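Bit of a strange request maybe. I'm writing a small parser for structure token strings and I need a real example to test against, not something I typed by hand. Could someone generate the tokens for this chain?
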Amino acid sequence: MSVQSLPSSLKETRTQGTVTFPCTVYRADASASEVPHPFITKVHWHDAVEILHFIHGHFRVRVGMEEYDICQEAFCFVGSGKLHAIYSADGYLEEALLFSPYILESPGVDSAERDLIDPLRRGQLTLPLMIDESSPAFCQIRHEYQVCQAIFESRSRIQGDQHMLEDAASQLRVKAALMNILATLSETGLLGEPSGKEDPRLETLKKVLGYIRDHFSEKIYLSDLAQLMNMNEQYFCRFFRMAMGKTPLTYINETRIRQASVLLQSSELPVAQIAEDCGFCSPGHFITAFRKFTGTTPKRYRNQQRVHPASF
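Reply from user aminoacidic:
Good idea to test on real output. This should exercise your parser:
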């Protein structure tokens, strides 16, 4: 998922796959780029269920308020509406399969529909967060996941970074593989009921993150962000760091740097103008922050992207 523009909300609104078959795959491969750069997906959420396959590399994954270090092959299941983010510095290979639970529905009300698919769609059934080689479900899940990936690789139509399956046979085979994954999770006791422990403050935090995305070019006051969550500044900063793994100021600067990187790639605006447009108080502050986040200067980044386009 490359950085192209900054939406006004952190909810991903683009269609996954096609409107009639909302299912697609993504791949992040460090070896595919001649110029090394980290793999970063910003904090976001979507209505789709996401199955992340970490094949090799060291990943830092945040889901909700929990952070995980992954250094071996593993699967991560991210449910609908969950805030999540991924970071890997280098040497990574990761795949993702996103799908709407609606594609698994059937018009009849059999046991699978009643006990598994409908509860999953309604959020009344939770998927396991992490599964690695120690799990009895791992091998079967990996097999079915690879079936899906192979079908997308050989039969999908690619538009931008979207892989779209349009023929009935391929869609049916992907549905069958996803059904088998769900069945395996059920048979091995890895499906459960919601714990009720989801912190309600995370929903309000989404408003704060959306506010930052809307106002990154302006002066952002911590007092305004804290007010959105009905907290005092000190408690807000503690909660934000606990939930996001970084301070509000760091997150604001990273948001501004991402937008600056887009402008450096897509425009001929002077660096000083980009600094002002992205909310930095001076070009010097912008250059310092940009180097801290990317490891290079804005000018070098612009020249590098003209030779080897890539995003971080």
